Amino acid sequence: MGRPYSQDLRERVVEAAATTSRRQAAARFGVGIATSIRWMAALTTTGTVAARPQGRARRSKLDPHEAFLRGLIDGQVDITLEEMRARLRDEHDLAVGLGTLWSFLDARDLTYKKRQLTPPSRNART
């Protein structure tokens, strides 16, 4: 993703566009014509030409159901992701993928590696 233009450049383009045309200001500072026009429009409507925040907020559709998921884990320590998905689907009518569920739980440190049950070794610890 590209970075926004600096605030200094934005102010210089707007200042130049106030005395000349927007197209000339764009050519002088090496920005797009539409960019210069958009910055001037923003200046007249909002009074500022500051860059908007980049990216988007990281939200999950599981956020409202965090307490329910924690309750499932507390109630049954060895619950599987597939069982959690089934409970979400049945009780909350919410369909999620395994990756979505795992990422949500991993972000909250609610995952752990389960060991496969094997017979104990005679030679070494398992």
Helicity range of the residues? 40-55%
- Which structural class fits the helix and strand makeup? mainly alpha
Strand percentage lies at under 5%
**Helix count, per DSSP?**
6
Low-confidence stretches: none
How far is the first residue's CA from the last residue's CA? 47 Å
Structure description:
This protein is mainly α. Among the domains are: 7-46; 63-107. 53% of the residues lie in helices and 0% in strands. The protein contains six helices and no strands. The protein has helices spanning 7-19, 22-29, 33-46, 66-75, 81-92, 98-107. Helix 1 packs across helix 3. The two termini are 47 Å apart. The model has no long low-confidence stretch (mean pLDDT 88).
Ordered list of secondary-structure elements with their pairings:
Layout (H helix, E strand, L loop, with lengths): L6 H13 L2 H8 L3 H14 L19 H10 L5 H12 L5 H10 L19
Helix pairs in contact: 1-2, 1-3, 2-3
Using brief descriptors, characterize the structure shown:
126 residues, mainly alpha, 6 helices
Describe the structure in brief.
This protein is mainly α and 126 residues long. It is built from 6 helices and no strands.
